Amino acid sequence: MTELLNHLLARIASQGPISLAEYMSTCLLHPEHGYYTTRDPLGARGDFTTAPEISQMFGEVIGLGLAQAWLDQDTPEHFVLAELGPGRGSLMADILRATRRVPGFHAAAKVHLVEASPALRKAQAARLAGYAPTWHDTAAELPDDVPLYLVANEFFDALPIRQFQRTADNWSEILVTATEGRLTRARATPAPLDALANRLADTAEGDLVETCAPAQAIAAEIGHRIATQGGVALIIDYGDWRSQGDTFQALRRHEYADPLEMPGHSDLTAHVDFEAIAQAAAPAKYTRLTGQGLFLERLGITARAQALAQHLSGTPLENHISAHRRLTHPEEMGTLFKVLGLYPEGATLPAGLSE
Ligand code: SAH
């Protein structure tokens, strides 16, 4: 229960306050006590639920969208079908089932998964047995000699962020320190920051901005592959075009919690800055940032929902209808969650997305 807290307190005692990024990556991925390393956090009995766990329709229409991109790019004979942070493997399983009847797609695809959690790798191996996936620790390890068709759902929000509060013309980093055995926030001495020089124009004193260097590094890896080899990436997450304000949050048993309490026992996330990802992915091109609801509608989720509904009645039918609503409705996941596509210069845009 308190092992990770003790570990963090000892580290702060010996080296001083730590960044939120260091706090977040320790809580999520500490080899023995990390949140993702030790458990499967998804589903009704876990801490949060994601779109692929809500309904198979999510992965099915995305799978057909990826297959369309493969057809649009002249059916490359070999390609990498990749997912970042595949959780239980449900999204990839639904993508693979839905594309089974696309002639040549499976024969050309090799499944690659980027996953840090041994517990979740086990779940993915069980779910995707028969497709012989290859696992990687980082996106940098993905092959770079064939086209890349990639999906990432609720992956980028789990990457460690840093927070900076603006002073008159400098930035003061928000840090994690300890007071009487409890974790609390502290502010570093204000200093100039090259990475945020461009944000002096659109912020005022007191405003808070978040940065996520790992997200930019991963976007650069993906963008490079897509620009040079072809393919597309679909990045789905909550967030906005530009980071502004404190979005660091914790979820435990489907309720919001204090992110500094019970380290290692809640899911820690921050909203995704899609602008930073789009720019880091250059020279790959990026699409307009589009609400998940509109994206799924354009991919035909309602027709798919109606087809599935024909075989259902009673409670299963009610659940199915409410799953469609949860994925698409503006008051549910429809506008909070957004989709960014990456594609090569001159290629057809990924289905469901616009310029
Ligand atoms: N995409 C899944 C799971 C989302 S949870 C779904 O939609 O259901 C976040 C996933 O990213 C988990 O599989 C987690 O173990 C993985 N993850 C988080 N941080 C990671 C990192 N730095 N490197 C690789 N995988 C990571």
Automatic annotation (TrEMBL):
Matches recorded under Pfam families: Methyltransf_28 (PF02636)
Keywords: Methyltransferase, Transferase
Keyword Methyltransferase assigned: yes
This protein's name: Class I SAM-dependent methyltransferase
Organism phylogeny: Bacteria, Pseudomonadati, Pseudomonadota, Alphaproteobacteria, Rhodobacterales
Residue ranges that the Swiss-Prot or TrEMBL entry lists as coiled coil: none
GO molecular function: protein-arginine omega-N symmetric methyltransferase activity
Any one GO biological process: methylation
PANTHER family: PROTEIN ARGININE METHYLTRANSFERASE NDUFAF7, MITOCHONDRIAL (PTHR12049)
InterPro entries named among the record's database cross-references: NDUFAF7, NDUFAF7_sf, SAM-dependent_MTases_sf
UniProt entry tagged with the keyword Transmembrane helix: no
